[in-house]
């Protein structure tokens, strides 16, 4: 048997550090066993998938030296490697399940599903679909179809008994079927859900080992059931430790810089970042902490994979990166590397127009522009809170900045300016005296400097987001309850009530 592993990221946003984390262990496992590592793009979310996000996935993995043997960009014997190009394959397999009575057409409307959730909440029952369309007669199905009612296709999950499967890391895992919904296989638009496409593709691409994060454990019963009803051999399954933030919860972009490009633009070396990511889920013998990708491939053993979550400790990353800087870059090459990172001619050409009329001596250049070259801004309450605005409301304004730029998918100059004016209007505050003062402090660490919007354009999306998140944390954050209220108010663009509470 030839070992075949894969990763299957969705191109719906900036490449999360979890993607190379999983990619590395799939690559390491495949290479250690002389097998193949495959990259597949799961782009069936038609509202959020973007070709530019797919390109970002390629670039982020290539920056880290992670190379796949088959994929959408290089082809292979099991293509196509984009799910959006495989829809007819999924429909054929779903029809097989319908013909065999293992799946059914579900005509539940959005209103019905909402009602089911509300009833479950009131009665304390498990929230989920109540299977009301599971046993319709052929005549009733035909009637509803002739009336033009839309439907999804769901899998008939057993009503009794347990799902059992072996995890190569965690051992035997069991789950009552009563806790598993009749999962949707095909959406009303004819596109597959992740669960169906994932299983069909893994089988047809002859994937032998599924190596993914712990967050997928709850979905695994749905997947192994699909293997069983199709009559296919189950692949081996390994669930890796979750990446955790400092709060002990799943690493989230709401509180942490999670884009791979943030770490690239902050000056980390790719070899060091790879070394760090492998330490998240694995321990080398003799507690070795500095090693190459080739070393871990050669000495890999799945017995040394951790079971509990792994803290994404940036201080540890800093230490590892320092070891690589000291031991892999000679002194006479250090400036060239620093120049390549942050002082390129291209970057300087963009920066010079912003400071040309603002400096009196060359010595003021760094004083004026240091915020563009450092990773940590010394935020304080005094700096971040405009007059008559509390720390909590300042944090809320910054959170709304993130929401505005995410919604417009524009973290550049124009998107930042538009967001600042939207936030000023939503909170009913002066744009210059309140919002600009808050944003200058957040981005630069002071209340004046080069033109802010142009500076943000140079700083870049990922480092800008990190500055805002750091400022929100410095201000004390926002409670979950108030975050929910703020979310609803931001939808109507009316957040003025918070200032009256101050």
UniProtKB/TrEMBL annotation:
GO terms for biological process: glutamyl-tRNA aminoacylation. GO terms for molecular function: ATP binding; glutamate-tRNA ligase activity; tRNA binding; zinc ion binding. InterPro entries: aa-tRNA-synth_I_cd-bd, aa-tRNA-synth_I_codon-bd_sub2, aa-tRNA-synth_I_CS, aa_tRNA-synth_I_cd-bd_sf, Glu-tRNA-ligase_bac/mito, Glu/Gln-tRNA-synth, Glu/Gln-tRNA-synth_Ib_cat-dom, GluQ/Sye. It is found in: Cytoplasm. It is an enzyme of class 6 (ligase). Its EC number is 6.1.1.17. CDD domains: GluRS_core. A motif ('KMSKS' region) lies at residues 250-254. This is Glutamate--tRNA ligase. The gene is gltX.
